[in-house]
Amino acid sequence: MQTSSFFGQLRSAYASEIDDMTFDSEGKNVLRQRLAARRKELPFLRQMMELSPEMVSVVFHQGFRFKNPALIEHVLSLESDEFPAWDTLSDAIALEPWAQQLADDLCKEPMGEWLLTVAAGLEYLFAKPERAGAKDHNEGDEDAEKDENGDHDGLDEEEKDARAREEAGQDWMVEQGFDRKD
Fold first, then answer.
1. Which of 25-39, 89-103, 134-148, 158-172 has the lowest mean pLDDT?
2. CB within 8 Å of 173: residues ≥ 6 apart
3. What is the residue-wise DSSP string for 102-116?
4. How confident is the model at residue 167 (pLDDT cuts 50, 70, 90)?
5. Does the pLDDT value for residue 54 go beyond 90?
6. Is residue 154 part of a domain?
7. DSSP state for residue 90 in the 8-state scheme
8. Which residues pair with 79 in a beta bridge?
9. Angle CA 123–167–145, to nearest 5
10. What is the mean pLDDT of residues 85-91?
11. Backbone angles phi, psi at 174, to 5 degrees
């Protein structure tokens, strides 16, 4: 499976978002409660769709059923401005009833269908092993993470951009009164 740089950058941010929501400071699994709270915040979160789509996409966590993996994997190879219309994906993606209600409301927004495609792609990738996705994304480009001296610095431009975008999203959330995730 080949993933675009867009999905490659957002994949780890999405996984981190889910991980951050999973346990409280006492180590208790609170994912269900935090997802319910985040879903109630969707009207507020809509303004973050373009800047931090991974933070909004988590409201659909466990809300998709993938009926045609080949079509989803094709969408994952596309950049964010190449996505097909959401209704053309209906044969490949089914929504759980609770997620369908959120999707119907979100589709009223100018970027709503775009975000649903992003959320479906991120959720599909989340269910895949990380190592396989990283290999597929860099397949045939073993030197992608080398710096100008030929050393592996651990960060390529896409990773740096993803981290900068995540940091900007966190800064914005702090400005809105939320705690910074560490």
1. 134-148
2. 55, 180
3. HHHHHTTSTTHHHHH
4. confident
5. yes
6. no
7. T
8. none
9. 75
10. 89
11. -60, -40
Which residue is it, tokens 């208790």?
28
Chain centroid, CA 50 distance in Å: 12
Could you tell me if residue 167 is inside a domain? no
Contact 1, 76 (CB under 8 A): yes
| Arithmetic mean of pLDDT over the chain | 81
Helix (H, G, I), strand (E, B) or coil at 97: helix
**Virtual CA dihedral for 49, 53, 56, 62, nearest 10 degrees?**
140
- C-alpha 124/C-alpha 120 separation (Å) is 6
**Structure tokens, 174:** 């702090």
The count of other CB atoms within 10 Å of the CB of residue 31 is: 18
Provide the domain count of the chain.
1
Dihedral sign computed on CA atoms, order 88, 91, 97, 99? negative
pTM: 0.70
Cα–Cα distance, 178 to 172 (Å, whole number)? 9
Task: Please report whether residue 163 resides in a domain.
Answer: no
Range of the domain at 129: 5-136
Q: What is the mean pLDDT of residues 20-36?
A: 92
